[in-house]
Amino acid sequence: MIESLHHLPHAAGTHDALSEHFTDLAPPLTARQAAIESARCLYCYDAPCTRACPTGIDVASFIRNIHDGNVEGAAVNILKQNIFGGACSRVCPTEILCEDACVRNHDAEGQPVKIGLLQRHAIDNAHFTSHPFQRAPATGKTIAVVGAGPAGLSCAHRLAMLGHDVVVFEARDKAGGLNEYGIAKYKLPGDFARQEVDFLLSIGGIEIQHGRTLGSNLHLQDLHTRYDAVFLGLGLGASRRLGLTGEDAPGLMAAVDYIATLRQAQDLTALPVPRRAVVIGAGNTAVDMAVQIGRLGADEVTLVYRRGVDAMSATGHEIEIAKMNGVRIRTWAAPHEVLLDDGGRVRGMRFEETRLEDGRLAGTGTFVDIAADAVFKAIGQHMDNDALSDPLARELERAGDKINVDARFRTRLPGVYAGGDCVAPGQDLTVQAVQHGKLAALAIHDDILSKTEA
């Protein structure tokens, strides 16, 4: 955890000055800009942007609402498909989804309609006097949801809309999952994540119990017995290991742990900041970590990946953000050895240069050392094995460390469903987790009604 870096100096400057580095990545549209941008939309009858949206938001419809001056209508159009529409407008990789599919995204015009910013404009400027969705008549059924992240809360909200009561079990002190703990602070600044959760819960019928961890003080067997259905939105909470000697030395830690601490910090000057940092990984989390440690004051930040740029899972947009923030990207280098000083603390990493041989990654036998006061690993997450340790949970069919589900997010155990990052297949996107939760809720509702009618 963050204790691994306590030997490092704290961030320089004042909290207020550092906070200026973690405001919104992109400024919001003004009303005038939103009107002009919405007028660019052609309102395509086949709407390729809608087909590209994992949650199926009717993009053309909500943009037309904005053009007509009906911001509340635009927001309702978004939220009825994606209750996390505010967060997704900020963190969703629109450049490879809806905006990539936009018919204006061609050489002659040069850029698509700014769908993400228009979605943000609608959500941020809608003023509801009450929750925009009403609960259906009570069904008398209660569903257990494990995990208060985007998948779990999306499932809970849709179930509440359908008239069910929901009890959400969450291990941490706050709800929101990665939106609260794992997204770069400059993407979801301030307490936006908490406000979005509060709005979601205002529909009623949803209770959250904190400090409840599956495999510890919560067991699937008990939930299966006590509730009418169970949804598992477990996420992937454990960081993968490098498998190198010295991995637990002071100065080496998981990027997600530092990001979580940064997001919860009341005083940014209390955070330890290395002068030289190395981030190992190729995804958006690696970029988030590299950019943020630079904004906190690190002099040198190097992101290292074992393959080429084309193989990086971070989007091109994210990679450009890294470059604009002074992050050096070193590719074709695989971690080989943790370098320690005389006190047993990290002083750098040794990497072996790599190449492709017959389509497979191979070491070249050439090594390069990169000096660092701290190394952050962002090489992926896996499921905590303790979560599925009780006898019933062990009956879940899994592919590696992910749970297998059918097309309606049913596991092999009757009455147990799963979605989000913990299921296979998945893209580990917030917007996809929201859709999983929504579709699982519809499946739970249909299955419960079928049993009742039978």
UniProtKB/TrEMBL annotation:
Q: Boundaries of each 4Fe-4S ferredoxin-type domain copy?
A: 32-65
What the protein does?
Involved in pyrimidine base degradation. Catalyzes physiologically the reduction of uracil to 5,6-dihydrouracil (DHU) by using NADH as a specific cosubstrate. It also catalyzes the reverse reaction and the reduction of thymine to 5,6-dihydrothymine (DHT).
Question: What EC number is given for this enzyme?
Answer: 1.3.1.1
Q: Which EC class is the enzyme in? A: oxidoreductase
Species whose genome carries this gene:
Telluria antibiotica
Keywords, A to Z? Flavoprotein, FMN, Oxidoreductase
What do we know about how this protein assembles, alone or with others?
Heterotetramer of 2 PreA and 2 PreT subunits.
Q: Establish whether keyword Oxidoreductase is in the entry.
A: yes
Recorded catalytic reaction(s): these are:
5,6-dihydrothymine + NAD(+) = thymine + NADH + H(+); 5,6-dihydrouracil + NAD(+) = uracil + NADH + H(+)
The protein in question is named: dihydrouracil dehydrogenase (NAD(+))
Answer yes or no on keyword Flavoprotein.
yes
- Cofactors that this protein relies on: FMN
